[in-house]
Amino acid sequence: MKAHPPFDPSERAELAELLPDPGYRELPPGRHELHRERLLAAIAPPPRRAPRRALLRPALALASLIVVAGAVAAVATTTGRGPATAVPTPAVSEPVAATPGGANAKIRAYGTVRQLTEAADLVVRGEVVRAEGAGAERGAVFRVDEVLRRAADLPEATELTLRTPEIEGMSRLEPGQHTVLYLAAVDARAGTYTPLSGDFGVFDVVGGEAVARSQTMAVTGLREEDATSRGRRLTVTLDDLRALAREQG
Predict the structure, then answer these.
(1) Which of 24, 141, 184, 203 could form a disulfide with 180 if both were Cys (CB 3.0 to 4.6 A apart)?
(2) Which sign does the torsion angle of CA 109, 113, 114, 118 carry?
(3) pLDDT below 70 — which residues of the chain?
(4) What pLDDT score does 105 carry?
């Protein structure tokens, strides 16, 4: 066998000039651009497809129905004799009253005399001198015989103007009535006040006792609530009211 002579590196340049470039000259015109577009298409991520709205609408509608059904079930109770009845929330079940300024305000249900004392701007014992006005402007003039408790920033007064708007279920303060009133200030400088939550803040004085004005708008205990006293007029002594007022300062 005849041995080949060793390869001379200088021959590489001569071969490169004699042989065409296989990567470029042998391809038809435009083929490089085609390869490049295919390569970029293979590398690029696939486009995201938008969700089909026609398929989403039934799912959203079903989800809404489930939420509404759950809310109705949470506030419904079965009576046993008929269909389910909705249970009113506290904000709906509380009676609504018109304030002297014309705005609507909920009547708060107090449970104890302690709560009335803590909430009141002024607690006084005295007598209704005369009734005034009617409807939303209904009121009375009240003579103060004793101050059980007064907020520090309120002026002293021997006579008060009471605002008692005419509300269904509330009684009227008539001349000659001796009462203990738990009052909220409407215009302290003018000496204008209103009983807390209507009849909740009114106690009639009978001898040495104070009797809740109303059976329905009445507290059930002095310091603690008493469920057995609901629907009845609470009776306590004036000394109890004075002692409780002193505790609040």
Answers:
(1) 203
(2) positive
(3) 1-36, 39-106
(4) 44
For residue 199, give Cα distances in angstroms to 98, 107, 155: 14, 10, 24
The 8-class DSSP code of residue 120 comes to: -
For position 231, what pLDDT does the model report?
83
Token pair belonging to 120: 């009141």
237 beta partners:
209
Distance CA 165, CA 135 (A): 6
Q: How far apart are CA 197 and CA 133, in angstroms?
A: 19
**Model pLDDT, residue 165:** 83
Task: Spell out the long-range contacts of 144-147 with Cβ–Cβ below 8 A and sequence spacing 24 or more.
Answer: 147/122, 147/123
Contacts 24+ apart (CB under 8 A), 213-220: 213/171, 213/179, 214/169, 214/170, 214/171, 216/169, 217/107, 217/109, 217/169, 217/170, 219/110, 219/111, 219/112, 219/113, 219/115, 219/116, 220/111, 220/112
Q: Is the pTM of this model over 0.70?
A: no
- Per DSSP, the chain holds a count of helices (H) and strands (E) of 6, 12
